Hints:
Number of helices: 5
Radius of gyration: 17 Å
Number of strands: 6
Largest sheet: 6 strands, mixed
Order of helices and strands: EEHHEEEHEHH
Amino acid sequence: MIYILESEERIMLNIRFAQRSDTKLIFQLINELAAYEKLENEVMVDEQILEESLFDKKAAEVIIVEFDNKPIGYALFFNNFSTFLGRPGLYLEDIYIKPEYRGRGFGKKVFSFLANLALERNYLRMDWCVLDWNKPSIEFYKSLGAKALGEWTIYRLDESALKKISEKSG
């Protein structure tokens, strides 16, 4: 548990690892993030796939952010690997704090939690992507000391491209 002093009041912020029973909540928060990013049509996951991926296959980890015992956000992350460093890193796929709770330092607490976790696991870096139009998030990341990797461009093979390449190879 993390305590934050706000206007002489002690307010409880709790950051915890998600449990299987949080699947519905995580799904809801993913959909809220998609709506914020104007990407609702990109959400293909359902609760069953999410539960299997997170808790059976352990493809990623999730932390839940709670303010006064009420969920207000989440972060979903997994390992990547740097061949140059010879070690894994933490790749942050999603971080989401509900809009009405932004600007109160909760996002910084999430990044602090993840930075500590990365260091505990002997990781040397943490990576993520941000939509180029999302100026508030970009400014927030810069305030943390994050640097944009301007010389790198992200490429992606979607499912149809994967199938096409797979078919060509035999």
